[in-house]
Amino acid sequence: MNLGRSHLEHVLSKQPNTNLAKNVILFVGDGMGLATVTAARIFKGQQQGMEGAEKGSLVWETFPDVGLVKTYNVDKQVPDSAGTGTAIFTGVKTNMGVVGVDARVPKGKCDATQVKKASLDSIMQWAQASGKLTGFVTTTRVTHATPSSTYARSPHREWECNAKIPIGATNCVKDIARQLIEDEPGRNLRVIFGGGLSPMGVANYTGPDEEVCKRTDGRNLADEWVRDKESAGVRATFVRNNGELARVTPGEHDAVMGLFATNHMEYDAERDQGPEGSPSLLNMTTTAMRLLQKGPNGFLLMVEGGLIDQAHHQNYARLALMETVGMEATVQAVLEMTSREDTLVIVTADHSHTMTMNGYPARGNDILGMAHNSTKKQLFETLTYANGPGHYDHLNNATDRSSVYLDPSQMANRSDIHYRHFAPIGIKSETHGGEDIAVYAIGPFSHLFNGVHEQNYIAHAISCAGQFGPNADMCKSTKSAASGFGSKAHPIAIMLIFTFVRITLL
């Protein structure tokens, strides 16, 4: 009763913040659907020994404004990160698998004239045009679907390096890595942190994943990026590990590229934390913040918790929750480094996954445990997936088996971070989910995110709040209306006041 009343009092006391969002920080938890947020909230509380962890909150769940976002692509009910990233960062929904182009371009079809006509500008380009510093941080490859949606235009998300572009398309479009260092807005980014040494031509990936691009043109794009910056009088450096990142200072560096893995970066639970190891999302983000805060006109920073998605694809529920909690620590650090008066912080996802929280587990039950402990019912986990490789791990291959699946409570590796939760349909990589995801916001014009929105609305709301890009003037008129007369946006309000005054004088 008291908790509900205090929350009501808090909601009633809210006043819209209509200041200019000088700085905008957009967090994207890749694959962080509502089931992931709920489970991560409970997981965090249980890890901290909190009684009644279900009542806890992730930091963004305390933000004053929350909305829901429709994630479908133009051609797919269930989306991918290229289509959703393009919607978030350009304000235009598009097809699955394409980056930075509208729906006139089908995935994998490259016509140079059509690609040029369909090319879209992103929030990074809008911000740069208004004099803001820009950058992004990701735990995936810097050329992967979500980060590349901030700077690239390509008919195929996998054309990350020259070796992936089909022979017939080589004269149609540059590979995504080249676009990052050669074209706007990529070449103007001041911070680029993530994995992806291989598609950038710095060091080749060696491993089982055939999807990782390896350049065949002999180019080292990181070196070229540094030279390009220095020729323009920008103090730039390239870093590859914790030790080198720690030596980056705003006083000595204006632009920094950090590539910390040949492929995606390692899960936070597995990374080497020493000088030769790779940084956490928190370390990369706070370094990026210090560099971008030098800009007199403010900055725009995109931060992606990309390994939430990678963990879900493997049915690694524990790792997905750990990565989500790690992103939460990063959001908290950003809040401590900024002011609510001039900085808009947004937390959202690009899509969800098929993980569900099911059964009727008792309050306080281990979120990674069994949904019940009855010996009279078939045991199953609270967190299960609709599909994925976990199916094969749970198959009972015994010749005298009494059940198709193993008893999950008896599986020896349940506490291992690579333990795969059960999925009834076996496929190599678990799929995305298609339900709405959430968007949380705090700071100037955060109230714009209340309600249910198409995913491409996010870019338009950012443009308005930050007063850059195509909707720059829309929030200016709101501000002037809030402070007095003179706004054409509120003629009805002016007419009502005039009528009231006239009646009073009669």
UniProtKB/TrEMBL annotation:
Binding annotation for Mg(2+): 30, 144, 146, 304
Catalytic activity: a phosphate monoester + H2O = an alcohol + phosphate
Binding residue positions for Zn(2+): 30, 309, 313, 350-351, 432
Cofactor note: Binds 1 Mg(2+) ion.
Membrane topology category: Lipid-anchor; GPI-anchor
Organism superkingdom: Eukaryota
Residues annotated as signal peptide: none
Keyword Lipid biosynthesis: no
UniProt name for this protein: Alkaline phosphatase
Predominant place of localization: membrane
Organism: Cloeon dipterum
Zinc is among the record's keywords: yes
Location of the protein in the cell: Cell membrane
